[in-house]
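User: Second chain of the day. Same drill as before.
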Amino acid sequence: MTPSESESAVVARLRTAGCVFAEDEARLLIAAADGPADLAAMVDRRVAGLPLEHVLGWAEFCGLRVIVGPGVFVPRRRSEFLVRQAIAGLAATNRTVPVPVVLDLCCGCGAVGLAVATALARAEFHSAELYATDLDPGATAYARRNLAAIGGHVYEGDLYEPLPAGLRGRVDVLVVNAPYVPTSEIGLMPPEARLHEPLVALDGGPDGVGIHRRVAAQAPGWLAAGGRLLIETSDRQAPLTSAAMAAAGLTTSIATNDMLDATVVIGRLPA
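Assistant: Same format as last time:
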């Protein structure tokens, strides 16, 4: 079988399984495979419904290759808007901060925090101090792998609970991509997500904003003066997330991006 025939066969299998971008996926799988037998096994896993990123072992996010695997939430492209907003907010208001302190709550594999810290290190700040937490041991294991190269600190536990007390009042940017799918709507999600990603990374409670309220309520105690809390949510839930931030004493705004179908609620602690 020639390489072109092999690619054609893979594309045909993927397309039959309902993969919309079969050609692109075939090229990625072929490039990642260690021989024909490995390729066949990878295609089998993808055809069985495993997310492409879980099959490959990585996801592309903000131009970075982030390590992921079975049982871990795959970072979505819409979350790149959360990263952009975090960087833009810091650049606009905190230029005097020599080394920005970034906290990524509900970090999953660490993609958002990694992207923010990497971008800041490449910009005028040259470096960033990064902390991340998640409740899921599987997620924190991947986060440690992804953040090791930039010296990120990863903690396992419920939101702020595992963080060192010395971090209080020091956080310049607090980014959160917590689950915000209402419990009743989990069953409507694509099978790739609801069958292969942890429920704890998807279920946001009855209205999808339960974790947002908990994050917002405690945020002022961790933010530095003028620090910002940024939470990814949906346009439908944004007013509820904004209200939770306002109740905690933060000045709020909502940013949207139609191309990415992305919504971010931003809360700023007064200076």
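The two ends are 66 Å apart (CA to CA).

User: Great, on to the next one.
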